[in-house]
Give the backbone structure.
Amino acid sequence: MLDAADPVTGERLTDENIRNQVLTFLIAGHETTSGTLAFALHLLLRNPHVLAQAYAEVDRLLPGDTVPTYETVMKLDVIPRILDETLRLLSPIPAIGLKAREDTVLGGRYDVAAGQKIAVLLRPLHTNPAAWDDPETFDIDRWLPERKATHHPHAYKPFGNGERACIGRQFALTEARLALAMILQHFALSDPDGHRLAIKQTLTIKPDSLTLRVRPRHEHERLTVAQGDAQAPAKETAEVHAEGVRLRVAYGSNLGTAEGIASTLAREGTERGYTVRLGALDEYVGELPADGASVLVCGDCKYNFAANGRGKRELTRILSIFASV
């Protein structure tokens, strides 16, 4: 943030703005992530079969005292699904606000005037039986890729909606994955008092009086992973060198993740001999490359390219793939 500048105007953040952002990280970011982790631990101890799955995953990817890396955290599968399902049932943010762009009618019954503000309660939305099968059940398998693809696009909003959705989503989820993985890597958890969920509210909502018993895990409790099983065998990859071939790497979104991935691809392309151009997707509006190779990195492609014929069909195919990731 100290070095960031608007790519169009060159304007930098003011000291006051940076102070406000840091306060948001320290207070709002900590509050929501810790509440999510508390709800997740409550749900795991109510669902021991899921807790066993999480322990098995941690023992496979983080055996012993292995120090987690970002790459390892990104390989986790069970723990991210636990967090997604926790946020569906017990989001620390109880509601989001929307404002009508134009006069409309909701559900054929409720008149909403342009500019009117509406609060959307997340619990009823996230457990709407019209959108979720068995909505009150803690089921992490509903977040398997094949089932996630069938979810209604507006039935799950724990981080808000649209352009005003939480900019810290990736940071919070990565932090929560890391924290939960390390807790399970090192500690055995139990709830001898049988915690009955009650909600309290400060800045956000969280469990009230959640007290667990924690002790270090014993070696005999860990899943034994055969040597070499912790990491899948490396696949043989062809060494690609393309001297002089033009490669465009374009990124979209304002969260930084896509730009980081694009920068890595551009660097690797340069090392392999490509003539690389790295830039934002906006730079390619009306200028779809006709030669060389192009890579688009984005979370949700809504850019309007002018292209014709085969190029347009291919771009549409690529965009549909990226938009579904």
User: Anything to note?
Assistant: Residues 15-91+131-221 form a domain with the Cytochrome p450 fold (CATH 1.10.630.10).
